[in-house]
Amino acid sequence: MNRNQVLPQVVLSGEPNALRKIDFCAPQTYQGSGFLPIKALTRVAKEVSQVAEGGGFAWSVQSRFTHSPGSEPNPILDLSLNGKLHLICQRCLRPFAVELAEKRQFLLLASEADADAYPIEDDELEPLVASQHFDLLETIEDEILLSLPLIPKHPEGVCQAHLSSGDANETEGSPAEKRENPFNILKNMKKSS
Length: 193
Fold this sequence. Notes:
By secondary structure, this protein is of the alpha/beta class. 22% of the residues lie in helices and 30% in strands. It contains six helices and six strands. It has helices at residues 3-6, 42-45, 112-117, 136-147, 165-172, 184-192; strands at residues 9-12, 29-37, 56-66, 74-88, 95-109, 126-129. Strands 1-2-3-4-5-6 form a six-stranded mixed β-sheet. The longest helix has 12 residues, at 136-147. The termini are far apart. 16% of the residues are buried.
């Protein structure tokens, strides 16, 4: 018999505050979806250059139990995120849109010790400590932040590098107007001595 068919399923509300206390220790499964505006994701809001009208992330979650012979079923949490936000390009210093579409699977574990002992080589499942007051909103925000590019920039060829004021002065002059090398003075001093 499939344990997922026997356990009650709780449908999560799409409201941000409803995602702050979920009992992942209870013998039940969860499913839900919704839309989180950027302003509901305070740490993400600090990273964006502007908040576009209707900007945010669509999310969906579903929990289930996996069956492994000879041991207790393991609770799994599937999380999907889709959304767009605006960052500053580090090449041209202009805002640009970044679209994120992420899918994650988490293995819900009973303690920090279990999570620490979980093998890092497992690329499919990430360990996550379950609790009776689990903050799913914080986990969603963590996954968005982890998905952001380390150095945000437009795709190659879309923007031009930002010129500093010193670079701009050099491009205005003709190649014939090259600056004199300041070390030429030292070279001439050495010759005269």
